[in-house]
Amino acid sequence: xxxxxxxxxxxxxxxxxxxxxxxxxxxxxxxxxxxxxxxxxxxxxxxxxxxxxxxxxxxxxxxxxxxxxxxxxxxxxxxxxxxxxxxxxxxxxxxxxxxxxxxxxxxxxxxxxxxxxxxxxxxxxxxxxxxxxxxxxxxxxxxxxxxxxxxxxxxxxxxxxxxxxxxxxxxxxxxxxxx
Length: 179
Prior knowledge:
Layout: H1 9-107, E1 112-120, E2 123-130, H2 133-145, E3 150-163, E4 166-177
Antiparallel strand pairs: 1-2, 2-4, 3-4
């Protein structure tokens, strides 16, 4: 059977045009759907990233508190180390006066009593009383012989005096402590 199209050409063109419009509309619809799906996916990513940002900020705040505690612990540690350093200095400097007093107490003759011992840096001044000049001389000799600890032992003065109406010799000795 032979087909004959009796419709004018303008109508036939409209049908081709209608097919192109429908195809274009369909493609536009597909593109819009693809764009909508992409937008939905990007929106999900944005929401996820915002959650991560919020979580990171919360972690930062929590770590700020920990950082403050760590800084406080460091400051406390430094204070304790400073205190320990002071204690160590005191302990090391404490041995000097103890050794000095121990050595002097071993060297004091029985007829001498001391009234003061003053130490400034390495210089020591000893003041006291004796019943005789021989006691002062004996003490000076003993101090000179203890050369492992003392040097430059000198008698500053020796004068007669009285303590409760008893005649005594008042004296002052200066010396230098070694080390």
